[in-house]
Amino acid sequence: MTKKLAALTLSTALVALAVPAFSQSQGDWTLGIGVGYLDPKSDNRTLAGLNAEIDADTRPIFTAEYFIRDNLGIELLAATPFSHDITLGGSTDAGSVKHLPPTLSLNYHIPTNTAWKPYVGAGLNYTIFFDEQSSLGNLKVDNSFGVSLQAGLDYAITDKGAVRLNVRWFDIDSDVTLDGANIGTAEIDPWLIGLSYVHRF
Q1: Predicted structure pTM score
Q2: Where are the domains of the chain?
Q3: Does domain 2-200 correspond to CATH entry 3.30.420.150?
């Protein structure tokens, strides 16, 4: 019985050693690169008396995270500009807009001692809108400041690298004007689904 227990313990230890460890310690930092699918909520309120719809877009995303304590990091999210078409009343092409979503978050990575490591985070987002285009007139979408929440899961493929799947939600409300007249507030509140490779330094 003792030999069987010893053999089982040794086997378990060898399996554990075979699993890459993607641990983050105080002073570490990581860089991530991947793609993000940004999907605004389906009902973006009323603009100019018509129901507004803002379509989804997929773009490269980037993250940099510095660990102020073991498993606790401050992360900056960046991306190339997302582009969205705006439709009013289900059929009227109201134009298009681009935006950048820099977001600063505090993340807690849950230690598991396995290759799988979940995390949660909360932070602040400042959404910068630009390059508004519309055949209806001079379209302007105001920048937005709001909270952001996220949850994710890392899977270690080496002791320094991991594949990351995460989901974020942004509180984005923007006043919209056409030819200088306020036509309403767009509640965009999108979800961002990201798939990235993350490397620890």
Answers
A1: 0.85
A2: 2-200
A3: no
